[in-house]
Amino acid sequence: MKIEEEIKQSVFKDVYQKAYINMVYTSNWLEQRQSAMFKSYGVTLPQYNVLRILRGQFPKPATVNLLIDRMLDKTSNASRIVDKLEAKELVTREQCPTDRRTVDILITQKGLDLLTEMDGLGNAGFTGLNNLTEEEAEILNNLLDKVRS
């Protein structure tokens, strides 16, 4: 559906305003769909993001600062997210043996198993990206990279 129909606005200041509104609207739309899908797994988007970062680090531990650097949502409180994941036994926290000021965060087998189960969701399907060809997805990636450069 076109952005004009979604937000019931037919006139925009210019194509740049329309593109901006379209990106913001689509970003929120994607987040809502993901949140609904993740709810049945008992995790939020930021928690899922942290788990994926930790899986990428595995078997090496991560620090809160590493998580903050790599998180998609830079406004998220990584320490609080780790607290919640630890309460769910999806991650562990231990003091670093070589630097007592640092806390090592490691994904547990339960966390790895949950991500494996969630991998079956098929990101393209629930995000709507399956409506794009691979070529269109590559063009979209290039355009979004260009916006941020």
Helix and strand composition category: mainly alpha
CA-based shape: elongated
**Looking at CATH, which topology of the largest domain would you report?**
Arc Repressor Mutant, subunit A
Write the CATH homologous superfamily of the largest domain: Winged helix-like DNA-binding domain superfamily/Winged helix DNA-binding domain
Q: Helix tally?
A: 8
Question: End-to-end span in angstroms?
Answer: 28 Å
Count of domain modules: 2
Largest sheet: number of strands, sense, barrel closure: 2 strands, antiparallel
Reported CATH architecture of the largest domain: Orthogonal Bundle
Spatial strand order of the main sheet: 1-2
Domain HTH marR-type: 1-149
Protein name: MarR family transcriptional regulator
GO molecular function: DNA binding; DNA-binding transcription factor activity
Keywords: DNA-binding, Transcription, Transcription regulation
Describe this structure in words.
One of its GO terms (molecular function) is DNA-binding transcription factor activity. By secondary structure, the protein is mostly helical. It folds into two domains: 40 residues, no CATH class; 106 residues, Arc Repressor Mutant, subunit A (Orthogonal Bundle). It has eight helices and two strands. A two-stranded antiparallel ribbon has the order 1-2. Helix 3 packs across helix 5. The chain starts with a helix and ends with a helix.
